[in-house]
Amino acid sequence: MTHRIRPFAAVAISLAAVLANTTLAALPAQADDELDNIRSTPPRAAAPAAAPATDQFIVGIKGGHGVVSEAAVSNVAGKAAGKLGIAAQNVKGTAAGAQVVKTSRALRGAEADAFLAELRSSPGVAYAEPDIIMYPSAFVPDDPGFPIQWNLWEEAAGIRAPQAWEISRGEGVVVAVVDTGMTSHSELNSRVLPGYDMISDAETARDGNGRDTNPKDEGDWVTTDVCGIGGEEARSSWHGTHVAGTIAAVANNNEGIAGVAPEAKLLPVRAIGACGGYASDVADAIIWAAGSQVSGAPVNPHPARVINISLGGDSPTCSVTTQNAINVARNAGAAVVVAAGNSGSPATGISPANCQNVITVAAAGRDGARAPYSNYGPAVDVTAPGGDITNEDFEGVVSTSNDGLTVPGNEAYEFLQGTSMAAPHVAGIAALMMSEEGSTYTPQMVEERLKATARPLPVACVEGCGAGLVDAATALTSAAYEPPSVSPFHDVSTGQQFYREMAWLAERKISTGWVEDGRRMYRPLQSISRDAMAAFLYRLAGSPEYTPPAESPFADVATGQQFYKEMAWLSENGISTGWVEDGRRMYRPLQSISRDAMAAFLYRMAGKPDYAAPAQSPFADVATGQQFYKEMAWLSENSISTGWAEDGRRLYRPLQPINRDAMAAFLFRLNILME
């Protein structure tokens, strides 16, 4: 059992030189021919090889806050510890009302499980979980190269920021960076708001006093074995400074680099120090960043609209403590962006990547393929540039840093790789959108827009990279649609799945629904018939001028039948060929359309684009030789259909009839693709 949560970054090359001539209008493929003071660094590998023990546990008592809760936890923990021949004491409360218990020695494996089991067996305990710690994970750099900010502008994997900057640069939005803190840097200082140091352990914090109002990064260097047996010596990472630069480094100032949202404000919240940081501190950092109360800390006067968490730890489920904190932030209106993790495995095994109400980000290399270290799978929402220094060091992501090996030294720049580098790209795009759309733009809207406007990875990600590569330009320039506060359909609620898409269908008059007893109905869970599908597609095309033939192209469709014109139009445009039975061409108008046939309809509706389906199916229940495989794979690559995740497998359910609510979502996404 691993109890550390770590920044998902890898050190490559540190640049103490200024990277000149970066502008908002256009970014160069490479900077000047030489950079001064390039230094190689040893790998950052503070994580011990063996899974470390933990000496802190979080206990929630039924009934919540107060002295009674503290006493109850103390009593239960004391009895549980006594059975193991150790002592335990309360050390602090969390913002969510739980108590953190520290044992007299660290517990590993079976001992930790036994302690937790004893705690959970108490009738008054709501939950008990390890207070996992976050720590850095790293990759060894190779020789230096020289491309600079490919991640912002290159076609293959860049986020296409310059076009987005024509619309928004993030002004007025606060982005919190829950991380190692921040060092002084000329590219950041004018953007930084007063933050907080949420590290409760003074030794971890290295500032002598635990929690305080100074979020300065004191350095997280470690010596051999200091974080556990097998842990290697490592220099300070300046991880939070690097993440912050990617989000909001000053741009168009003729020095340094450009951030994704260069006019946003940064809120540093320090939760990671030497050997990492406890999940309870990270949870309180999230809550404080969102503007909610944390005991012993002043209320944050600048609540964040976006919270970046480039951290994580091995955990098969999201802990109650972490999920509660994320829910508080989400309910306060903050989009929570998290890194998927660097273990090259399913992100479902990493927390907070496996939590609900987060935007989980995988990493792509410069070629647009999933980076080999990046986690993947159904927990991933989107992918962003994270770098891959397998072949070239400078194919990492460059951002602000510091040249100090232990304590802060001079400001610098550094190339890193990791999902830690990918997540702040998404946080920055979220800030651009929230700045443009205003205070009513919700975290759910941010997530939906990011997914709807993501583009396929140029190299297929069969393991699952979410909706695809984030695209700032498309997210900002595509006509956004805000659904009405009152539903156009009596049987569709505004909080219902796919409400936005169904309301869009109504507004575009793609679907008019039915009128029953004076009320307009959509029947969202009813399967859609093939004749109605023809009408939907005809209207999506703009209801073009068309005179249907006097003789029906289908033996089972009469010329006076409802939607005859639309079905004939589908036939004439090659969108539907129907079936041939006994020498006659049939359409089967009243038959429900299956999901595989729907994929074929949408592919043809898009103009049958050139597309080579991958050799390995993106769906476990769709074979590569199956009818309409190409079309279903195309839907997946273009994020028109994401399917379902079941038992770690991605399913499409090709022969299942498609409901009217899901069809609304498919048409909405297809429309974005075709715009």
UniProtKB/TrEMBL annotation:
N-terminal signal peptide: 1-31
Family: Belongs to the peptidase S8 family.
Alphabetical list of SUPFAM superfamilies matching this protein: Subtilisin-like
Keyword line: Hydrolase, Protease, Serine protease, Signal
SLH domain mapped to chain residues: 485-549, 550-616, 619-675
InterPro entries according to UniProt: Peptidase_S8/S53_dom (IPR000209), Peptidase_S8/S53_dom_sf (IPR036852), Peptidase_S8_Asp-AS (IPR023827), Peptidase_S8_His-AS (IPR022398), Peptidase_S8_Ser-AS (IPR023828), Peptidase_S8_subtilisin-like (IPR050131), Peptidase_S8_subtilisin-rel (IPR015500), Peptidases_S8_13 (IPR034176)
Keyword Hydrolase (UniProt): yes
Region (Disordered): 203-222
PANTHER family for the chain: CEREVISIN-RELATED, PEPTIDASE S8
Active-site positions on this chain: D179, H239, S420
Cited PROSITE patterns: SLH, SUBTILASE, SUBTILASE_ASP, SUBTILASE_HIS, SUBTILASE_SER
GO molecular function: hydrolase activity
Record-listed E.C. numbers: 3.4.-.-
Protein's name according to its UniProt entry: S8 family peptidase
Record's compositionally biased regions (Basic and acidic residues): 203-219
